[in-house]
Write a structure and sequence with these properties.
This protein is mainly α. Among the domains are: about 1-65, Alpha-Beta Complex (Conserved hypothetical protein from pyrococcus furiosus pfu- 392566-001, ParB domain), CATH 3.90.1530; about 160-205, no CATH class. About 55% of the residues lie in helices and about 10% in strands.
């Protein structure tokens, strides 16, 4: 038996129902996506490996070539859209990326974790406040340039403020435990927006 790599534990196991469907599919159609190994352990594909063992299908392997940072980014990129993650699980992934390299900018972490940089900023601030993360005055952007973590604020137009709040609103919707709850609150927001626009038109008439 091949053990799971510690980096693969960033994501929780799939449900028993989903595992049963995966095992049935592999038994019927075989294994199409190879199991990825890193440092002699399974980096991506623990569920596929277990399913192959259960149904008696020979597993196929591929080896990951890269360092720990690249392996961490790979496992997140490969799984972030496969799984239905609750808000706490998403934040734990962000926290793991921040612990791995706190000098990376919020936007870089957000790009890897497929979340908004505002969400990364909230997680970072919380970890710094609790002493779980070192405080840095600067972070490093994608081009390798040092940037102040908090840039001097500039006067913003109504359009810029609206777009910033819109992005935060989308982040907040993603925190709900189900799409139904998110849709319910989104409908409330749309109603208030419609009422505001109607009021503005009435005043302008």
């Amino acid at each position: 038996m091949i053990e799971p790599h510690d980096l693969s534990k960033l994501f929780p196991p799939i449900s028993e129902e989903d595992f049963g469907k995966l095992a049935a599919d592999i038994k019927l159609n075989g294994l199409h996506q190879p199991i990825v190994r890193y440092q002699g352990k399974i980096l991506d594909g623990n569920n596929r490996y277990r399913a192959c063992s259960l149904v008696g299908t020979a597993p196929k392997f591929a080896d990951f070539n890269g360092d720990d940072a690249a392996a961490r980014n790979y496992i997140i990129s490969a799984n972030i859209h496969r799984r239905h993650l609750n808000p706490d699980q998403r934040r734990e992934i962000i926290a793991a990326l921040l612990r791995a390299d706190p000098t990376k900018s919020n936007r870089q972490i957000a790009e890897t974790a497929k979340v908004s940089h505002h969400t990364v900023g909230d997680v970072r601030n919380g970890m710094e406040t609790r002493g779980q993360l070192a405080h840095f005055e600067t972070t490093t952007d994608k081009a390798g340039r040092k940037q102040p973590k908090k840039k001097p604020s500039k006067p913003r137009s109504a359009k810029q403020i609206y777009h910033a709040l819109q992005e935060q609103l989308i982040d907040a919707l993603m925190e709900f435990s189900s799409a139904d709850h998110a849709e319910e609150h989104a409908e409330e927001t749309k109603t208030r927006l419609d009422e505001t626009i109607a009021s503005m038109r009435k005043e302008a008439a």
